[in-house]
Specification:
single chain; 247 residues; 8 helices; globular
């Protein structure tokens, strides 16, 4: 593995951890081809599943100020292949991605703002480590990989709430989602499950005093307002560098 070399136009982000990379990971989407003889229902169900992809080449990301795992500081390489075989990724592993994307105005989607962090997270979940550019492998506990996932989202996208929700979701998957081929590894998410129960209890308490129709109409109104507001802003006025690209 060659040492990572970042160009003068590399993207840098500085809080809560330091993140640097040359560009968004180059990916090749895998075709979704139904089996011969599949029914219409089979094809519709397949169309709702997350799209898998592979890296077009090895991808480097520099991390610093990772206080909870000092060995990660420096350049990390997410390789295109392992043992000569292309590695499959699926981005943020969101259940019912079409529904979650709809309900969150497209913020939480597998190939959305969480893509950069999810590629690092996917690799750690598959193999239980991250690889430095000198070839050494840094073994990671599951909870550390989850925290790094949250920190990269927050650092790169400046969306702490999205980072928290994504982190919270992967922590809840502890009992049944495999990490390095095994379930229930690392620190158990007892506090996360307690927080989930508190949230459910509060929701039930509030909903019990509000008619169902009022809940639905209120949620629909909030969604419509948020959707309308987001359409008022032009992308070129929000994305760093887009102004230069259009002049």
């Amino acid at each position: 593995m060659d040492k990572c070399d970042y160009g003068p136009e590399a993207e840098e982000y500085r809080y809560p951890i330091y993140v640097k990379f040359d560009d968004i990971p180059p990916v090749r989407l895998k075709s979704i081809t139904p089996k011969q003889g599949s029914t219409l229902i089979d094809r519709l169900v397949l169309a709702t599943k997350p799209r898998e992809f592979q890296l077009a080449k090895d991808w480097c990301i520099q991390l610093n100020n990772v206080s909870y795992e000092q060995h990660l500081n420096g350049s990390v390489v997410v390789p295109q292949k392992r043992d000569g075989k292309l590695i499959d990724f699926d981005g943020a592993s969101i259940p019912l991605p079409w529904l979650v994307s709809l309900l969150t105005l497209g913020i939480l989607r597998p190939l959305g703002v969480m893509l950069t962090a999810s590629i690092v997270h996917d690799y750690a979940y598959k193999f239980g480590h991250l690889q430095k550019d000198d070839g050494t492998e840094v073994e990671l506990e599951r909870d550390v990989a989850d925290r790094l996932f949250r920190d990269i989202i927050e650092t790169v996208n400046k969306l702490p709430l999205v980072g928290f929700i994504a982190w919270f979701a992967v922590r809840l998957g502890w009992p049944f989602v495999k990490y390095n081929g095994k379930t229930q590894g690392g620190k158990p998410p007892y506090m996360e499950y307690l927080l989930l129960l508190v949230f459910i209890a509060l929701f039930i308490a509030v909903a019990a005093d509000v008619p169902f129709s009022a809940l639905v109409s209120g949620a629909a109104t909030v969604y419509a307002v948020l959707y309308f507001v987001t359409t008022l802003f032009k992308r070129k006025n929000l994305v760093a560098g887009d102004e230069d690209a259009t002049t």
